[in-house]
Write the structure tokens for this entry.
Amino acid sequence: MTVEALADLSRRLPDLRLLTEAGDLEHYGRDWTRRWTPAPMAIALPASIEEVQGIVRWANERKVAIVPSGGRTGLSGGAVAAQGELVLSLSRMNRVLGFDVVDRTLAVQPGIALETVHGAAREHGLIYPVDFAARGSCSIGGNIATNAGGIRVIRYGNTREWIAGLKVVAGNGELLDLNRGLIKNSSGYDLRQLMIGSEGTLGIVVEATLRLTDPPPASQVMLLALPNMDALMQVFALFRAGLSLQAFEFFTDIALKHVLAHGAQRAIDGEHPYYVVTEFDAPDERAQEAAMTAFEQGVEQGLISDGVIAQSDAQAAALWRLREGITESLASHKPYKNDISVRIGAVSAFLHDIQALLSREYPHIDVVWFGHIGDGNLHINVLKPETLSDADFIAQCEHVTKLLADTLHRHGGSISAEHGIGLVKRAYLESTRSAAEIALMRGVKTVFDPNGILNPGKLFI
Ligand code: 2HG
Ligand code: ZN
């Protein structure tokens, strides 16, 4: 069936690039989760919207499942193809299509890397402000599919805020032109927003119009060492009151140990359980003094044990590396990842509850905490001990995630803050969304994708 079906696809779209070599199936069939064995039927690399539509129409007739694929840096298995699906990689559709100086928007194809978008915005004296460590390899289509967040959400919000328009191929092959760059459009349901964060289950993004903005004022980067967990949100309150924050990120001593072992430079001596990297506007002396005042108050109140402020761009980059290098430094330990959020106001109480839970449930296992604490978003990476098999380790982590999900439910939080549900978190969707909501989500899925060919098995069980 596969050979015949692919031959039919090639007949219909003679210019379509199709890959079926084992190495390509392996490469395009997985994302950063590395948990599933890739087993796609083939990889399609369309070069145009028409080709994407042609593939989707063919898949409908043949009832072939499609996995839309960007940079595959996802951490929830949203781009995994392990069930004989066709991977539809958007990597060849990776160009800037145009800049509109009046609207201050950049039209791009979905396969463009986030970093390339940053560069294109800078060429026009503007910025695209969504940013995170995978910027060099993730694609804007994937960012849209997961409503990606990152390190500047505290200032600029998530991807959702920056999408002025989307062209999407829906599950029946129809091309939708959603919102068309309008700022004001009070004409019924906003289908563009419905697409953002839908993880490739409702449509395939084939073009995006991104909103750009002015660059922020000159900034400073500070690394702070904190004596205990309670200090985290108190320092956040202190800094947010006195400064205009661009980022407020935290990590623990265990995270630091790994990132230093991976080549980053120590910036503060001594042992401290918690660290914060913060960046704030510092265009003039007054702002710089405000930062020193906040720092000194933190020290006086016993909330800050030590700190450094970057004196150059290179030093600022070195401080950021301590935070941004964490994911890569943990990769060889096959971490099980939780990406969770609660309201900022609920963080302190929530941290206490889960600290008790995680130390009880993972007594002899390294648990690495870090993340976007200023947005109420924590990344908890559980490192696999060498003595445990992959399967036993995942089983144990899934048991704990169920308990974590119950705690999140009590605190009104979310089981996925910014990585998406994919395959990894679908069993816990109910902790964050009510049965009524999930029923409506399933209904929406059927409307956009009547034959269920778009990323089946992701998001829902
Ligand atoms: C980050 O904030 C990313 O660095 C990755 O969202 C988080 O590896 C992780 O768990
Ligand atoms: Zn993150």
In short: The longest helix spans residues 390-410. The pocket of zinc ion (ligand 2) is lined by residues 371-372, 379, 418 (CB under 6 Å). The CA atoms of residues 100 and 446 lie 36 Å apart.
